[in-house]
Amino acid sequence: MGELARWNLKVSRETDLALRTLLATRGGRKGDLSRFVEEAVNRAVLREIVRDIQARNTDIDPGEIEKLIDDELGAMRGSFWTDWRTN
Questions:
Q1: Could you tell me which residue ranges the XACb0070 ribbon-helix-helix domain spans (predicted)?
Q2: Do 24 and 44 belong together in one domain?
Q3: Cβ neighbours of residue 37 under 8 Å, at least 6 residues apart?
């Protein structure tokens, strides 16, 4: 997890109880609350990044995007197998 930062959060009592109940039903252990919050934040950040990229690319032809993706995937596949064979 790397270097840790400490957050102080305030949530409603209902949210606290719902989350703690969920974690308890999954056999909650020390650190589960922190892991749950970190995973939720990471998902929310990724979702926002995807929305930003989609908004930035609304004027680009979908076919052009597909071609760019295919070109990059092809390059990555080629380098993956080249690297794999040499190691």
A1: 5-74
A2: yes
A3: 7, 9
